[in-house]
């Protein structure tokens, strides 16, 4: 048996005690057969265990069981106070812009930066020796750059000043502060400027001499003006002041570019954009621009009241309706509506597709309705970003009106208690409007945020200058690429940027109805 591992004796077998085979019963005896082979093997022994317990066998007294378990109450007494204290501390240390905060009655903005734009600025020419002021402010699409135009707001005769654009870019090494990065100069004052809403390198501006210029900031290096610039054809806006600019959104761009393809038979470029400008000569020009292919062509020229043989009004502002493809069909409006405001207070509702031809002129008249306007100069008009067909207008007599394109009379008229100069919608809030104030006294706010639905100002502190001085705000712009920031330029050439915690402001459904 040398070949068997672990055994040194012969295998033993036992015969069954039962002599009669019974197929219905099973014996508890197991017979194991062993055999000897000439190869090495190891014997494995298996055992089966079983257990059957009935409910009567378990004698458990449920009523005698102690509840709660011993020590639980003492454990809770020690743990719960510490947990509650930690929850209270977490609520206090939460971010100021958290929408879960319950302290919404008191909101405070923070002055992020105050910049003296005219500091170390190039000379703007002799002219009438009036101090320069900020004429326009615009944020880049990423919110990391802000452009400011510096010049004279009024001229007794012809403009004899040089125009200047100063661009400030956020630098991480400077604590995300905005640092002066480049200057762009012009031979006339720059009245208005606009960054492209999607392409951060495209900046358009208009001058007092009627020129519309497009800059590609990617090619502007070291603050030297060697970048590619495209200028509108001579005689644009009858060489009069450009009063408003707007980049067309994707839907409007496709509409106008298709119109250009049908008229000229030329294919559009992949990087073609549509820029719209208005001037005080009563015209609105639609431009096809492409900075890479150096295209600056006129698609259409609108002349307000041109077909009615009336004097062309002096346009002060305009805006196109905002449309969204995912909006329900009952809330959609024609995408070709735009409104024009004038210095005389009139508001014209226009259509970019259904217009009247003007005799002996290449221009067309888009006006189809004259709204019940203001009694004085319309400072700005802007369609709501989220309410279909709704737009607001402000005038020099501190009046704010809310209109619907489906009726000529205003839905609401608000008389502001302060003199106002400019306005801008807050992008992610359907009824909040930022308004710039004029002739502000010391320690008072330079801008206010109004809820257009309720007609009341939002309770917001901190919207004053760092030195607590007053002044007159000339232009405001809002960036909501991440945190909400408001930039405001004033008549003293000071640019102020605030961080505003508007996410903490909760609006009820009633507050969203106009």
TrEMBL record:
Point to the regions of Low complexity compositional bias.
Answer: 25-38
Q: Report the coiled-coil segments.
A: none
Indicate where this protein is primarily found: cytoplasm
The region called Disordered is annotated at 18-50
* Superkingdom, natural source: Eukaryota
Matches recorded under Pfam families: WD40
| Localization of this protein | Cytoplasm
UniProt repeat feature WD, residue ranges? 371-413
Recite the UniProt keywords alphabetically. Cytoplasm, Repeat, WD repeat
- Write down the PROSITE patterns for this protein, in alphabetical order: WD_REPEATS_1, WD_REPEATS_2
Return the protein name: WD repeat-containing protein 34-like
What is the protein's species of origin?
Plutella xylostella
